[in-house]
UniProtKB/TrEMBL annotation, chains A, B:
EC number annotated for this UniProt entry: 6.1.1.12
Record gene name: aspS
HAMAP family: Asp_tRNA_synth_type1
High-level lineage: Bacteria, Pseudomonadati, Bacteroidota, Bacteroidia, Bacteroidales
GO molecular function: aspartate-tRNA ligase activity; ATP binding; nucleic acid binding
Keywords, alphabetical: Aminoacyl-tRNA synthetase, ATP-binding, Cytoplasm, Ligase, Nucleotide-binding, Protein biosynthesis
Recorded catalytic activity of this chain's protein: tRNA(Asp) + L-aspartate + ATP = L-aspartyl-tRNA(Asp) + AMP + diphosphate
Protein name per UniProt: Aspartate--tRNA ligase
Amino acid sequence: MFRTHTCGELRLSDVNKQVTLAGWVQRSRKMGGMTFIDLRDRYGITQLVFNEEVNAELCEQANKLGREFVIQIKGTVNERFNKNANIPTGDIEIIVSELNILNTSATPPFTIEDNTDGGDDIRMKYRYLDLRRNAVRSNLELRHKMTIEVRKYLDQLGFLEVETPILIGSTPEGARDFVVPSRMNPGQFYALPQSPQTLKQLLMVSGFDRYFQIAKCFRDEDLRADRQPEFTQIDCEMSFVEQDDIINTFEGMAKHLFKTMRGIELTEPFQRMTWADAMKYYGSDKPDLRFGMPFVELMDVMKGHGFSVFDNATYIGGICAEGAATYTRKQLDALTEFVKKPQIGAKGMVYARIEADGTVKSSVDKFYSQEVLQQMKEAFGAKPGDLILILSGDDVMKTRKQLNELRLEVGSQLGLRDKNKFACLWVVDFPMFEWSEEEGRLMAMHHPFTHPKNEDIPLLDTDPAAVRADAYDMVINGVEVGGGSIRIHDSQLQARMFEILGFTPEKAQEQFGFLMNAFKFGAPPHGGLAYGLDRWVSLFAGLDSIRDCIAFPKNNSGRDVMLDAPAALDPSQLDELNLVVDIKE
Amino acid sequence: MFRTHTCGELRLSDVNKQVTLAGWVQRSRKMGGMTFIDLRDRYGITQLVFNEEVNAELCEQANKLGREFVIQIKGTVNERFNKNANIPTGDIEIIVSELNILNTSATPPFTIEDNTDGGDDIRMKYRYLDLRRNAVRSNLELRHKMTIEVRKYLDQLGFLEVETPILIGSTPEGARDFVVPSRMNPGQFYALPQSPQTLKQLLMVSGFDRYFQIAKCFRDEDLRADRQPEFTQIDCEMSFVEQDDIINTFEGMAKHLFKTMRGIELTEPFQRMTWADAMKYYGSDKPDLRFGMPFVELMDVMKGHGFSVFDNATYIGGICAEGAATYTRKQLDALTEFVKKPQIGAKGMVYARIEADGTVKSSVDKFYSQEVLQQMKEAFGAKPGDLILILSGDDVMKTRKQLNELRLEVGSQLGLRDKNKFACLWVVDFPMFEWSEEEGRLMAMHHPFTHPKNEDIPLLDTDPAAVRADAYDMVINGVEVGGGSIRIHDSQLQARMFEILGFTPEKAQEQFGFLMNAFKFGAPPHGGLAYGLDRWVSLFAGLDSIRDCIAFPKNNSGRDVMLDAPAALDPSQLDELNLVVDIKE
């Protein structure tokens, strides 16, 4: 070993010990014939001292060390005169007697400090230097700790971790697959799994009973801030269970994680909300419940009073921001601009302040009597000092989504979205299908293996769009951190489902035959859930993007700029794979 | 929940309890008005009893259940009259009061028993049924338990598990890469990692200090019995260490695994053998040391006595099989045939028995005096009753490898390769390079990042082929279960290494620039090791192939016959990827 201790280990009780340390030069400073160096490793920082008067040559050497040089030193632990209460090793320093340069360093392109001067691009290119920063490394330490706790919780409940293959077959339902040409099977391709969904269902058919895997998943989608082409799921499946069994098991896991990762004891059961209510009251299937401000629908109250915008609307709804009547005209105009942005798409916004005397002062006073405005106030249960914001439109769902954006924005402005506060929620009773304009058919909202609610099965023949599923998402602070469903285990019901989704029996057999065949040999009732590991870590670490909890993430073009991947292949590699690149304009 | 207990849980102390069980019908039999059903789940088997006289209708229903039907029953726990001492639940049975068929089953294509009647192909196609068999599932349970123990051991030593990406860049040095076309970067490809080698080295540059990952690795190689296109490594790396630190850390892990997985306490340090000795005494870099029979070289003794085969040889060597003088002529002829098989390639074999009176009776008696034969006997330290087997050839390494095959075969025949006995060994001091006839240049024996032994660095300029590396393999029972090396952390030495390997500076920069650049910013001394998870599990489970410890393995053509993957893509998928398939004859 190059060291007797790490740089985070020594304390007052170690004074006078002879030690050997190794690490990186964080910074150095000269002060009255003394040279002080902060030596850094993963575990902490220890101050080294060189005294010109005691050993001029050694001090001279120390003065030549650059930032990020890798050194090994021997010396004696000494009590510090000026103690540093900010670091655990701040009571001691090392009087160095021997210095050994293990490696030099060029000047890093940005400073290795918590607040670095490096921009995003340069830090991605030199990711291995960015990872030296405590702020980044600590996210990965948290990720490590979280997977340890996940496995501890699941192992103890009898879940078996089973590795499923990465090279599987391509399944067309769902997102776009990444594919891998097979050299041994010319012209044929593997696909990388979007999730181990069908494989974990096969494990249930195999009687594995309780399965999990911390599994890499792949989707070839256009990327957004919180998406990566490869991401990691805590993927779980159980047999002989109903929806409540799964919800209870994984709510237990969530509570275990809150306790072990953040020291937060959540004793109450998590709130549950139907998808229909989530849409009605929050305009989102992942409402942020750190704050209230549920939607209030105003068609009864506000329609038919001569304000043509509302009179022509099929939806009028609003939110009440407590104590926000102090919003200035300028702030309100900015909010109006916000909802009119193309990506939100509202036409305008109506606002109303509740005055100290209880009267309502609104932007549409000329159309409404104070009596109607008072009815509106009642509908919100608004008090003096509150601010009411109203949107309307001719598409109920679209207008609700706009109102959702407004609610989140106002919540942020009012400081109601504290990263250290957590609101956990199960959204349940998702619709089984959603209509795809693009495909001109019903699509599975979760996936084609989701079990419809038993009481809705008759609707499959009469009104499939109204069928609800035994599907559930866990939402924390407006982020979908996981979701799952009870699966169909009956091959006839599965066949009926494919029929409704527009598959011919032949096509269903071709694409999912292996699963439908498996179901003929005694499939147990089963269901499961997948948690997004990256999202959980981001949540616990207070990050805005999942990128910062991934060691080597890709950028928005799917590139690893550090590795400079992807890249062109050697022509002989393409040849061996029987492939020709043919880039169309 | 569909059950109150599992099928492996109930005991005498549960008698008279009302229980609900769910599982698969393993078998059923009728006996004097009673029907007995073995109900199976992952946890065990419980006997169900239906009495025709008590409930004729229920018994009738039970008689109609087929093998592998999934059922749920309610009933009362009863003490068995004929107890079954072979299973933990053998003291009790369930008097069934209610039966609920959860799913039917077609007749399985093979029996779901420990000794199945299904051949390899049919079991691979219906892998989900094969996985129902205890014998197969228990391998995966062992695998799960092993990864739990690996993580426990490493976490406690401060190793951080870091996920590295699966979509990386292609590196030409080494085996063939699997590649993944990028839709967002037309004409460019990712590669799947053959191992996280360079990424874990970058994590050391990042100061992660101790890294591990249970990592999927991919090699597009022609397959053999113990190879799969995707396999799993326990991949580890440490900073500020020397070879002994790594060997001690991972020998500790091996001992921890032997203890927790097999209940075997290994107290002695593992034997260490140089690569040169392994080749000299066993003709293999992974000798099976469950038995002795080291090679004895006989050039001095046997050459120059008129036996032209030996007189023309550059290598003559043999093994001494203790007590095997009883081998018949037929057995010896079969051994001769064995070594002459094309894949081994020896020309012939000489044998000699040590008679009871100490004289030597050999197949080449006419060329050798008893005096010379006695010298030979001395060389082996052979005793009466022993059998000496000798090979010769004009290529030292080739002949040693043939003798290795012979040694292993004789060891097997003599029952010296007991699967429940374990011989652990470190092979050290591997050569840095090996000559590639195909490429006409030196190749890195491990990989180009391996550190040469310090004392051999001067030889890099004068005799590179003689340079030994700080590289080590762990070998158990003749299987290489892991290996690693100290890495180069000096960018100049790394550049020199690429030079010797025939890379121009430009080519080295193009392919490994990211790593060489990283090394300019203060790389610490580091090294690591990777254990083959599949091989370890096979070893502990006593399997002949790694295939049986993998949930969904591929066959020798790289096909998953259950999923029928790989397969042709939809033309629109190829189009989106800017690819054309062009199969050459």
